[in-house]
Write a structure and sequence with these properties.
It is built from nine helices and 13 strands. With 326 residues, it is of the alpha/beta class. Helix 3 packs across helix 4 and helix 6 runs parallel beside helix 7. Bound molecules: acetyl coenzyme *A.
């Protein structure tokens, strides 16, 4: 058995901050941000939460799959940025959608999370544990962003993307996924609860520590991504006996235009095979791949029977690539 994507959906907040607006409260410029990252604007949650965005993206994916919520038997939400720890986002999505027959759980693998959710749903299907799965990446990174730190706040945005998978007869492509915990210091964020359980929000401003926000060694992450992503893509293609000419698109985590360009160059593949939308949304962590997948689907760019490679990378450090046939 293998998991086939039968529907996609996404949701992004309508409130947008472009680079010029950002430059008004942090020392940066539109030119610097575009040149170094490719980001032009980002969508930022106002009333939305990880759960509300996940539920709406999930609802749209279920509509696009033309199935009933009751048919879903697995829900996985990949997120690092939910404002609620319990109950998990997946159970809240289950409640919002009326997916009463599903088991749900969250997954935290940062920007690799959607790829690992895809792999997990596939593994459930290969072992006969599930028939229809809803997998979602939903992030409210504006909650974790230090808006005074120009090295990070320019990069991130909020949103959610989702896909419905159905188990079908056929050979599954095996994924390639990795972690290297020894390199975890490159991208960190501490819990906002101190040892007495007092949340940061009720502490005086001067007690808010830098480590309560996402901290990143940008150059280390950049070097890691441009080395490991081409490696893992080559690896997954070799182990599944897929040639580059068989692949119609590589859908990469949307972190930085220069990373995507470097990966394309190292694989000696044309940029047309690497769709991007990070100019519009910035880096939405585990939501970036499914938002882009949904956009390509809506534009009719995904042709039946064609092969697509997904590749994610991020905190942990974690990275991985998976293949599926549309
Ligand atoms: N505006 C203006 N100047 C800036 C800004 C900014 N927003 N940010 C940094 N600078 C300055 C720095 O202060 C530094 O100045 P200095 O030389 O006087 O000290 C100079 O620009 C160069 O800074 P670097 O950090 O070396 O800039 P770099 O070229 O590495 O670009 C960036 C930074 C864009 C973050 C880059 O390292 C990058 O894209 N890394 C990958 C990060 C990434 O994609 N992370 C996400 C993946 S994981 C995940 O998705 C959660």
């Amino acid at each position: 058995m293998t998991g086939v994507i039968i529907g996609t959906g996404s949701y992004v907040p309508s409130y947008v901050i472009d680079n010029n607006e950002l430059s008004q409260f942090v020392d940066t410029s539109d030119e610097w941000i575009r040149e170094r990252t490719g980001v032009e604007r980002r969508h930022i949650a106002s009333d939305e939460t990880v759960v509300s965005m996940a539920a709406e993206a999930g609802r749209r994916a279920i509509d696009s799959a033309k199935i009933a919520p009751e048919e879903i038997d697995l829900i996985i939400v990949s997120t690092i940025s939910s404002d609620v720890i319990l109950p998990c986002a997946a159970c809240e999505v289950q409640k919002a959608l009326g997916a009463v027959n599903a088991v749900g759980f969250d997954l935290n693998a940062a920007c690799t999370g959607f790829v690992l959710a895809f792999n997990t749903a596939n593994a459930y299907m290969m072992s006969g544990l599930c028939k229809k799965a809803l997998i979602i990446g939903s992030e409210c990174l504006s909650n974790l962003t230090n808006w005074k730190d120009r090295r990070t706040c320019i990069l991130f945005g909020d949103g959610a993307g989702a896909a419905v998978l159905r188990a079908e007869e056929g050979k599954a492509f095996l994924p390639s996924a990795h972690s290297d915990g020894t390199k975890g210091a490159a991208l960190t964020m501490k819990s906002r609860h101190d040892r007495n359980g007092i949340t940061k929000e009720i502490l005086p401003q001067e007690m808010i520590k830098e480590e309560y926000f996402m901290k990143m060694d940008g150059q280390a992450v950049f070097k890691f991504a441009v080395k490991k992503v081409p490696e893992v893509i080559r690896d997954v293609m070799k182990s599944n006996d897929i040639k580059q000419e068989d692949v119609s698109y590589y859908i990469l985590h949307q972190a930085n235009r220069r990373i995507v360009e470097a990966v394309a160059k190292r694989l000696d593949e044309p940029m047309e095979k690497f769709p991007m939308n990070l100019n519009e949304y910035g880096n939405t962590s585990s939501a970036s791949i499914p938002i882009l997948l949904d956009e390509l689907n809506k534009k009719g760019m995904l042709k039946k029977g064609k092969l697509i490679v997904l590749a994610g990378f991020g905190a942990g450090l974690t990275w991985g690539a998976s293949i599926f046939r549309w």
